[in-house]
Amino acid sequence: MHDLATRLRRLPPSCGPVRLIGVDGHAGSGKSTFAGQLARALGDAPVLRLDDIASHDELFEWTERLLTQVIEPLAQGGTAHCTPYDWRARRFGPPRALPPAPVMLVEGVGAGRRALRPYLAQLLWMEVPREESWARGRARDGEEQREFWDGWVGAERKHFAEDPSRPFADLLVRQCGKGYEVIPGPAETNGPDHVITQGDDPLAMC
Hints:
By secondary structure, the chain is an alpha/beta fold. The chain has six helices and ten strands; from the N terminus they run αβαβαββββββααββα.
């Protein structure tokens, strides 16, 4: 994790003064846990969780809100203000300030979407098959969220079919034992002059 943090700090800024790092993957793949550990390795870098941007009515149709509330202010060197969504109360809360930082993580399903990639310094993909990820997520959230998960799976399939992230990942993150293995992703191994055809499911696991 220390080596990865050092590598990310050395990247050129990608969104105003910020090195914006995307952490994407299927729901239940461990993005939040990994992003939390990486943020600590980066000296408590701020983490924008896309669960705060999405809502029950807009599981994936939140691009404009993200660009307006977060990306555009940061790109201009200013402080972003997002209105975190309360998934239990089903409403957006008061604005929360996100001042620019040397490195900031944006974590969640769709963090590597087409509209966001131009502002990312690096895109990381959690290398866990979708069925395994979804099973983890269902077990984590319990019976209370069963109906939500039934709807989520179809919405996620549709999103990644139309706007895949994994083919554009710079790095793939695999959980192995007590730590993580980070390996080059399709964006690095294929290069800009190669046609990328991979889907959002990993080819191999450690």
